[in-house]
Amino acid sequence: MTEIVESAVDADPRASSSPADSPSRTPWPALVTLLAGGGVLALVVWDGPSILRAVSVPAYIAVAPGLACARLIRIPDGLSRFVIGVALSLALGVLVAQGMIHLHRWSPLLGLFTLTAVASLASLTELVRNGLGQHPGREVGVE
To answer: Where is there biased composition of kind Low complexity (predicted)?
Structure first.
């Protein structure tokens, strides 16, 4: 039993995980979330084609806010991260809808704006935490 604990302590988690397993190594999902949020809001505000809105808005609401928040948790398994992200998106959607009802401010545009703000805030947090300009393989040391 002691050998297992010692080998687990000595093991470097960065050496055994590939960049694909580490959700925080690449900035592109956060950037895509930011761009998709702006695109969905633009479609709704400027009254884009109805078929495009009918597909993109529910897909964005069902995936983006929770997946952006789930990436902050750093879950290594991609399927688990996706399932937790979708569940969190649906829960956030319900909470936003209940909050609007409670405050007597029901508006589909306000709900979409709030969920987009949550997703954008989580994405910006991820970008700032990981450093947008830093390279993933490069470590910064203080001399």
So the answer is: 14-25
Which residues constitute the domain of residue 56?
A: 26-127
Please tell me the distance from the alpha carbon of residue 97 to that of residue 102, in angstroms, as a whole number: 9
pTM of the complete model beyond 0.70: yes
With respect to residue 141, please indicate whether it lies within any of the assigned structural domains. Answer: no
What is the distance between the alpha carbons of residues 96 and 114, in angstroms, rounded to a whole number? 7
Tokens, residue 143: 């001399």
Task: Give the total number of structural domains in the chain.
Answer: 1
Could you read off the pLDDT of 75-87 as tens digits, one per residue? 888 899 999 999 9
Mind listing the pLDDT tens digit for each residue in 108-121? 999 999 999 999 99
Helices marked H in the chain: 2-10, 13-16, 28-45, 50-73, 78-102, 108-130
Structural domain contains residue 8? no
